[in-house]
Amino acid sequence: MTTTASSHRQIAPPALEMTNVRKVYPMGDDEVVALDHATLTLGSDEIVALLGPSGSGKTTLCSIAGGLLTPTAGSVVVGGQDITAYNTKRLAKFRQETVGFVFQSVNLVPFLTARENLLVVNELGRRTGKQQARSRADQLLEELGLSDRRDNLPSQLSGGQRQRVAIGRALMNEPELVLFDEPTSALDTHLGEQVMQLIRSEMKSRGTAAVVVTHDERIVHYTDRTVRITDGVLHA
Amino acid sequence: MQGCPHAEDPSESRTGLTLMFLALKEMRRAAVRFGLLMASIGLLVFLILFQQTLQSGLITSFVGAIRNQSAPILVYSVDGRRNLQGSVVTPDLQNQIESVPGIAQAGKIGQGTFSVTAGGKLTSTAIIGYEAESLGSPTTLVSGRLARSKGEAVALASSAGDGFALGDTVTVEPGGLALKVVGQAAQIGYQASPTLFTTYPTFEQAVHAANPDARAPLPAVIAVSPVPGITDTGLAARINRSVPDADALTRAQAVASTPGVDQVQQSFRIIFLLFGLVVPLVSGLFFLIVTLQKSSALTLLRAIGAPSSVLVRSLLLQVALVLVVGIGMGIALYAPLASQTIGSIPLSFQTGAVVLWSVLLFGLGLLSALVAVRRVLHIDPIEATTGAGLGR
Lengths: 236, 392
Ligand SMILES: Nc1ncnc2c1ncn2[C@@H]1O[C@H](COP(=O)(O)OP(=O)(O)OP(=O)(O)O)[C@@H](O)[C@H]1O
Ligand SMILES: [Mg+2]
Fold this sequence. Notes:
The complex is a heterodimer. Chain A is an alpha/beta fold. Helix content of chain A is about 35%, strand content about 25%. Chain A contains seven helices and ten strands. In chain A, a hairpin with a 2-residue loop joins strand 1 (about 15-25) and strand 2. Chain B is α+β, with helices and mostly antiparallel strands. Chain B has eleven helices and twelve strands. In chain B, a hairpin with a 2-residue loop joins strand 11 (about 340) and strand 12. Chain B starts with 9 loop residues before the first helix and ends in a 15-residue tail after the last helix. Magnesium ion binds near residues 58, 59, 104 and 181 of chain A.
């Protein structure tokens, strides 16, 4: 398993190649530089922790890597796909097919059950047949320890359970890259560690790359590498 | 992808399924809320249709006698203000009317309100007498035959229960003139009273029975028909031009301009306008609120790659479903009531009104959802990344 993964790593393109990315937000007459000359490359199954204080540009970087935001300058290549010049429509398709998101706040559709929150991803993209999607969703929920919760609505789940459903949803489209924006910030230490363990095992078993945004130093133990960011500038 | 054994046509079925998936799942999870909306739309549609039927029944009971008689043109005296009860055509005026070229046939119509004993009770009854069968006889005979000789009458079918049934004899008071009901016609009411259609001589007898001292009555209107090649409107206009004291109206004009009809229609029009506004307002507001409430879920869906067109169509599918079910419920409520009699006003199922209101409300309802659609289109998926509401 390990040998296949590492030999695979040599052929597969990097999961993420950001080169000299700059993002400037207009602020009235002024501008805010949220990201400056950010260059970051992620191996095809690498897990990177993105560590930095509040307002340092972590979410901005993830949004650009995930095709939610276009950079002011620089280039973004995800899984060999250069998305720098994509328009809104192509970006939506890219997000649907190539990346997985776990956001800082809302992650689940309240009127869909845990299982349906996973299935809706397949409905949007229709990557596989209904039957395959169902068994994939059930398998993910099983791995995440949610088999007995699959028919519950988000409002009937605990914070940790919700976060695990969100992880399942992010993996449902078999992404090249998963972006976790502070996946543990709403959880207590113990639950946070459990969720990180889960993220690591899910990523590693699939050979999927991930960026895990945090300002918690302890998260670093679960990732392959740490990249620090302050005021929009990356440090190795 | 290529190995997929039952690969369907990718784009079409794909979005179709997503639409159903999202729209129906949400409606099922919020069944009470959507059910209440459908019920309120159903109730409003029922009220609209019911009012429409009531209006039509009311007007029919007032001027059904004019609408459902055979003369194409009725010539009133100008002083009569287009009212059978006020109009009197003198022999001189009658001569002037009948000398207008283009008239194929002319005949007198007389009308009066009489006290009549029917079924053992004294009631106020309209009697309308016509000289020629093709110029003033009822056209909606449902049983029996037209009145041909003295002492015969055709009665308003819906007053059969009040002693005006086929074969009944009613008596004009105080003179005691007996009239035998030889036929029944539907929707020939006049001024909301039981109505009898007789020949002109019978009408004259009735006037005499009511008031023995009265002179021979004058007709209320002269009914005329045009020669071939001239339209009803054309002949009416010609009569109005050449006889200043005459007021010639086609049947439809005579119905519409009978005093009271317009006022009734006007008041109902305001009611309809209000109802017509309330339905789209209710559905439009409902969907706007629902959309605002779930905007974070919609933002999430956009962020994970849902095209806005899918979300918009999912919304429109819900709107359409709610409207169809709501309107259907309204019609289902209305149908059994439409054949009842409210007081003395017989109602009837108004297919035209049902179709018109269904289409109109469906269209307006969809239009009203545009506000919610606008909200959906303005969702920016980037907002899914902001940590707002997390309480950090
Ligand atoms: N839409 C925007 N308009 C203007 N400025 C913005 C916008 N979004 C972010 N910023 C600014 O860009 C900078 C980086 O923001 P970002 O959200 O990426 O930080 P972050 O590292 O994710 O912070 P946190 O840990 O609080 O989530 C901040 O100074 C922020 O105020
Ligand atoms: Mg952030």
